Amino acid sequence: MEAAGLEWLLGPMQQLVSWGAAGAMVFGGVVPYVPQYRDIRRTQNAEGFSTYVCLVLLVANILRILFWFGRRFESPLLWQSIIMIITMLLMLKLCTEVRVSNDLNIKRRSFAAADSKDEEIKAPPKRSYLDFDLNYFWHWSKFTDYVQCVLTFTGVTGYITYLWLDSSLFVETLGFLAVFTEAMLGVPQLYRNYQNRSTEGMSVKMVLMWTSGDTFKTVYFIVNQAPLQFSICGLLQVFVDMAILLQVYLYSSYPQKPATHTAHPASTKAL
């Protein structure tokens, strides 16, 4: 009788834990960007956040969604990608509006327009459709240009995925590229710290949040038997986070020297 009562109690508790883990998986990835978003709105200054964060996360999560069509995985992981894409688009919208409003003399650059829109130089257009100059790519003046770029990437990769969906090699490679792209988010910060021999200007609290979140995510992958690519790249992401924390410890023993360039508190992984 007692065993039956205990089983009756443990069943709902296990279900609640499962729902809580799924909810944390879906929304936990966007939590570090909430204070960043609020800070940009409050200060009307987006210089401390690299929009390349949005680019990398958009690419990674679009590829992950496409991977789902080839190999179905846990629904919370799919919803996590959808929520992350929405979050990154909101970040892009805010950063673009703030950047343009703060610099009225900024040259107008577009994803799908000619350079003749630049009223300052009055020069004939050098490119007739897409501005793929590396100096201006992902530095456009309107949020709609970013949306067009994301839709173009989604359409092209979606069409390729549709054509090769029957190839297990392609599907597995797609899944690996999705999680590997996201796993590499901390590498630019790691390299910049190494170049500067300093972690000055980097938020240690944010790195701790990454580490705890990535550790939870990796354990979730392993426990729920997610595709092997997820677990491997999750472990790699935790390794990068730990390496950054190790840099914090090592460089704290040396005087902080000023960087040779403008140091922003955010790297490609968003601080």
Automatic annotation (TrEMBL):
Alphabetized UniProt keyword annotations: Membrane, Repeat, Transmembrane, Transmembrane helix
Signal peptide: none
Keyword Transmembrane helix attached: yes
Annotated TM spans: 16-37, 49-71, 77-95, 146-165, 171-191
BP GO terms, sorted: phospholipid translocation; retrograde transport, endosome to Golgi
InterPro entries in the record: PQ-loop_rpt (IPR006603), SLC66/Scramblase_ANY1 (IPR052241)
Membrane protein topology class: Multi-pass membrane protein
Subcellular location: Membrane
GO cellular component: cytosol; endosome; membrane; trans-Golgi network
Pfam families, sorted: PQ-loop
Keyword Repeat: yes
UniProt name for this protein: Solute carrier family 66 member 2
Organism name: Alectura lathami
Taxonomic lineage: Eukaryota, Metazoa, Chordata, Craniata, Vertebrata
Gene from which the chain derives: Pqlc1
